[in-house]
Each structure stands twice: as C-alpha cells, then as structure tokens.
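Standup notes
- HV: blocked on the assembly model, inputs below
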Amino acid sequence: GIQVEQSPPDLILQEGANSTLRCNFSDSVNNLQWFHQNPWGQLINLFYIPSGTKQNGRLSATTVATERYSLLYISSSQTTDSGVYFCAVPPEETSGSRLTFGEGTQLTVNP
Amino acid sequence: DGGITQSPKYLFRKEGQNVTLSCEQNLNHDAMYWYRQDPGQGLRLIYYSQIVNDFQKGDIAEGYSVSREKKESFPLTVTSAQKNPTAFYLCASRRGPGELFFGEGSRLTVL
C-alpha cells in the first residue's frame, strides 16, 4: 500500500518563528489532507489540497502531486499552534476508501 | 449544526467487560471510520463502512466489532477479546472522495 512519511517528527519553536512541515507519499494521489490535533485530542481539518497552494491566515499548504510531496507552512507561530500535525492520503479515488495517515509532526511552540 | 457526535467522551470499565462507543453523523456521509490512537502515536484504522449493512476490517480489527444499520450511525464495540483496550477512539466520516471529518473522540480506560 501507499506509504506516507512526515518530517520532522518533532519541532520546537519560539513564538513568532516560522516553520515548514513536510509530507512525502509513495504513490500517486488525487487528494491530500492536513490535520491539526490539539492537546485535547481533537482533530481539526486544516487543508484539503490535492494540488497547488492554499492559504488560511498564517497557515498555507502546497501539494506537488507529480513529485509526491506536500508542505505545510506555519508563519508567526503562536502557542496555540502546538500539537500534532498529520497528513493523510487516499490510495484510490473511490467512495469509502481508507486513508493512510503519516505518523505526524509534534510541534511545540514556546512563549 | 452538522457534525459528528461521539459518546461518551470518557469511559471507565473493568477488565473483561464489553463496551460500546457511539458515533452519529448528520452530514449525510456515506463512509464512516473508526480509528484508535495510543499516547504519542498515530492513527490506526479499526473498521470502516462504505454503505449501510456493509463494513470492512481495518488494520487492527481483532477484538472489536461494528454495525452499520443506519447511514447516520456506526457504533464500535470493544470486546473482552481486545487485549489492550485503553486508548483514544476517533470516529470519522466522508462523502465519496471528499474531506474526512472527525468527531471529538472517546477516551476509554480499562481498570
């Protein structure tokens, strides 16, 4: 099956710093999602981004499907950005197909 | 409001007891999923269902059972056969190849 690798596994920042998280996948995909899991466990949808670039406030994401990677940019980080960031891809473009998740990047933003 | 509701949020049970976690969605999504998350780990797929009265095993189905009698509902039973049931359980749903959305999760502790 498809393999998904995220890097770095852990990242510690000072408030106000910028960061880039990476998601590599081993096969062609038709879409990709980024999630943020907050310290209470809730998984929040950040981006649904099969290709191209999207921006939402201080966060943006770029997926280059032909090169099999996606990047999540966090600018001017805040302590509330702390948590785990997951990317997920479906191996097939069919209803109900299972998504493969990466192992996540644990982000800690210190005040 | 549309969304995915999991209950209970916290559950304590004695070893050897079966427990059922509820997941209800009013998003009119066809596919529903159950994931398990252990501390500091990623998400592992337990079961998923693409349509009513049909479901498939995920990667760690042993010791779990599900049903899908209604489109809106996908309950998960953690049976006494599950050797290490203490974990965080997440339910998710999606329409076709669209975005995956998660409920807030249920934390099960077996004493």
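- HV (later): unblocked. The longest strand of chain B covers residues 87-94. The interface with chain A takes residues 30-31, 33, 37, 41-43, 45, 48-51, 58, 88, 90, 92, 94-102, 104-105, 107 of chain B (CB under 8 Å).
- Next: hand off to the docking folks.
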